[in-house]
Amino acid sequence: MKPLLPFLALLFAWSxxxxxxxxxxxxxxxxxxxxxxxxxxxxxxxxxxxxYTDVGPGWVDLRPEMGLQVENAYFKEGAxxxxxxxxxxxxxxxxxxxxxxxxxxxxxxxxxxxxxxxxPPVSKLIPASLARYRYHRFFxxxxxxxxxGTQGAVLLGAGSIGEIEQLxxxxxxxxxxxxSGQFVHCAIFPEACSVALEMEIFVNGSPRSILxxxxxxxxxxxxxxxxxxxxxxxxxxxxxxxxTDANALRLPLLPGDHVNWx
Length: 262
Description:
Elements: H1 4-18, E1 24-27, E2 34-36, E3 42-44, E4 55-56, E5 59-61, E6 66-75, E7 87-97, E8 103-110, H2 128-131, E9 135-144, E10 150-158, H3 161-173, H4 175-178, E11 186-188, E12 193-203, E13 206-211, H5 216-219, E14 226-232, E15 235-240, E16 258-261
Parallel strand pairs: 1-15, 12-16
Antiparallel strand pairs: 1-2, 2-3, 4-5, 5-9, 6-7, 6-12, 7-8, 9-10, 10-11, 12-13, 14-15, 14-16
């Protein structure tokens, strides 16, 4: 068996040398820093969010651990829906995208003593039929010519990727044809409504909802130490990063990230 030992040692050394890293690494570069993935792909910081979900000009597809915070303002019945004179308060609904598809209503908070009858509850701004669709695409702002140039956020829902792509492309060119009448794939949020695209991460062991597009620096401000774990191939992989480098802290965070810092 002795002649076999050098061969086994060589085989072991070769396997160790060719084994891929199991960590991410932040690399200084110009014009933007890079995130090197465990499969050795270098991704410029601005492109990192687009590796988690599809992102386009003014829109984002919702993926697990992403969601919407919908805050709607209410005014006295029959009064103009603007200004403080008739303002009654707000209601806030929080939605999360499910792993199996669809949106789940997490919570509703109301600061309106008595909601006016001519304004729907915030929980109805996304109809249940729309929330049940498997795929959703959120548009930050769409202009509707038939409503005098009214601008508002829009949520599309569809049963397949092909359908959401088709509806999304049509919305960009002719929004009134997609969201007119009783179109079941579209929800237009009122002008008095603000919609924030959020994601869930963990900070020092506790879950936290933050805005989509947030940077590590937004969570860990001037840290002495920072440890970041990111999902990769079914497990959490460490991200090697220099906590003293302000540019490195501009790394975009992703849903499910674990940030521990002090």
